[in-house]
Amino acid sequence: MNHPIRAAFAQTRLRRFPGIRPIVLAAGLAFLALPLAAQDARQQIPLSGSGFTGWQFFGTDTAAALPAYGSSGFVNGPFQDVAVPHLYQSRLQPTAIQAGWYKLDYTVPAALAGKRLYLVFEGAAAIADVYVNGQHLGQHRGAYTRFTVDATAMLTVGANNLIAIRVDDDPADTADCLPSGKRLYTVWGGLYRHVWLLATDPVHIDPTDFSSPGVYITPTNVSSTSADLSIEALVRNTLASTQNVEVQATLQDPTGATVATYSSNASVAANARASVTLKGTVAGPRLWAPGSPNLYHVVTTVAVGGQTVDSVTQPTGFRSLVWSGWVSKSSGGVVALNGHPILLRGADVHQEIEGKLSAVENPDLLFNLNLLLDLGANWVRFSHYPRAQYEYDQCDQLGLLCWTENGHTNPDEPTATADTITTEWVKQNYNHPCIAVWSVGNEASGANGEAVAEREVPVVKALDPTRDVVVANMVCKNADFIANNPYPGWYSGDRWSLQHSGYITETGAGGVITTHIDYGSDKHTVNSFEPEEYQQLVAEALFQTGIKNPKIGMFTWWALRDFTDVKYKKPEGLNTKGLVTYAGDPKDVYYLLRSFLNPARTVHLASKRYFLRRGSATNG
Length: 620
Prior knowledge:
By secondary structure, the chain is of the alpha+beta class. It is 14% helix and 30% strand. Strands 31-30-29-28-27-26-33-32 form an eight-stranded parallel beta sheet. The protein has a six-stranded antiparallel beta sheet with strand order 5-4-6-11-8-9, with no helix packed on it. Strands 1, 13, 14, 15 and 18 form a five-stranded mixed beta sheet that branches. The two termini are 29 Å apart.
């Protein structure tokens, strides 16, 4: 492509784990403590991705038909070599396989003797049962959140081990998940994100608290003058005796220089976990914002007997974000970042591309974010489900504020599984300064759909009282505010009738690059005749009425990129409202939006794909 892109840049839902007895300690705070030994004792070994081989897979058309672990059907199953990340579905055959077995023969390095060994799965859609050497270690429910298995007792160091994962994406089995079997969007089945082996010292920062980093960083009372900082570390002791530990947190500024060091001593009982909280005040923090993403890092270490045994590094940023409160189509809509008004402008993004569907790699994700930067966007809505850590990491670094969602899009019954998925989502992503709000529902109409959102708001509030909890285009009395999904000029109404204030999480129109009309014609039919030129007409009206309006604090185009949606253009289904095609080629509307958002001059000849013209030479 020759278009310009600016270069830049648990405790889980497992049903059986060794028990962890939580202990909360009142930790005394010591400033300017002597630095601990600079040693990172944990190792994260990739079991997937480029260059990694050994995974095999076979599947069935229903989960009920899949043979049990260890049965003759499993042992003699028609396994085939695959590369993970992997999907077992395709656009041409989206339901041919609904469940399957992944297996890996893996020799754990002998050097890891004496370590605690965890298997970390960044995502498996949608239900995963994990087995190691014949032992069922647990089940995780939910397609989009990370989960971690303590496999120490079952893995044999220095020898071959059989790791097997049963993945089930049968809609009949996912009624309690977010989303359920009734899906607003396509949930592609498979082991579609990365897998890791995590090795730690027996005393370490705990990775099993809903598969979080085990460190929670909370800046409060933020201004350019000062900010309060709280750092909570969960220390796990898997030894048979009490361990006395020193926990140290080093705050590094955007240049990597040490700003402050805090430490505390604690006693962690045998086979238990302790919570250690460090607090301090940071003078003159460099504030995080789009255009100046001043990203700090906190390096948290654990030492036993003066020797560092574990270390975890997490991002943080100092910023304040204030929303105007409850919003309707006729009131509210102001956003203040670091005490100054900001107009949030960007697009909705799915984790899906034409060549790989949702089994995307980091360069694919970065490509989309670079498209947003090239547009001049400062805002992205990650619709409609949690994303891989890499995407949030990149938003932290690139200066893109984001709206993130827990997957709730259906009128389903409230469930404990939904609580767990929501908890995982918040705890795993708590530290990212790019996350502006937590959304617990999108267009989940009806009493049940509303009940799920109402139930999840206090779940999130209890975990993170510092951010607003919201929904999109649905009723939720507990939400801090509700954003809207208006489509004037597309589904109904005049394209110039966009709301005059409030927050917009979706708006737009479809555009197919092989379908054209003379410019100025209003002819279109949703899902069957979607000319690229009509998409431009709608976009120009929406951009002129919405982009510069200071009362519309959030303007989000649906969507950045075309993606699979079975509601449209069956049988495969395609939502064509993207600014770029499924393959990533910018449409004319992409350049139109860039002319509104990017201060660099944009010159683009539109309708170049309309090469066979039959209309009047005087028409448009």
